[in-house]
Design brief:
Length: about 160
């Protein structure tokens, strides 16, 4: 993971320095970090900091919901369909990868799914691919830690 991260950073530095155009990248990414680099950075940080039951649904949700949002943004079903899918992705991921109770999985899924959707809103300079992984993962991690500290049993 560390080697892949270092390769990513070196590649991005060279790409930006040499102003290399890569098919599929947006024109504004020519002089700054690409969405792919932001996602790679979020993957590295999240895999280093958070347990798999939080990381996997966050990454899968970003990979599916971000393009879905782009396609559905002008639809009357936006943001309802992507939000529902996001919640389902978190529910299935938490259910499969954790030993949390069904009520806890339900609550964490709604929280993670809706926060992932809110994280997709454009930011000043941080790409939404980074935000859609890191923000819900961080919030879920804090919620689970606080519940553990105050003695709320979620398993």
């Amino acid at each position: 993971l560390v080697v892949a991260f270092i390769i990513l950073i070196i590649f991005e530095a060279i790409r930006i320095w040499k102003k290399i155009s890569i098919p599929g990248f947006r024109p504004y990414e020519k002089g700054r970090l690409s969405a792919a680099a932001w996602a790679g950075i979020a993957l590295f940080i999240s895999f280093m900091l958070f347990p798999m039951e939080i990381v996997v649904p966050s990454v899968v949700a970003m990979a599916i919901i971000d393009p879905m949002n782009g396609e559905m943004r002008r639809s009357r079903y936006y943001p309802w369909i992507p939000a529902a899918f996001s919640i389902v992705i978190y529910f299935l991921g938490l259910l499969a990868l954790s030993n949390y109770s069904i009520p806890a999985v339900f609550m964490l899924s709604i929280t993670g799914g809706l926060i992932a959707m809110a994280s997709e809103i454009p930011h000043l300079w941080i790409d939404d691919d980074f935000m859609m992984i890191m923000v819900p993962a961080t919030v879920l991690y804090i919620i689970i830690a606080v519940m553990d500290v105050i003695g709320v049993v979620i398993t």
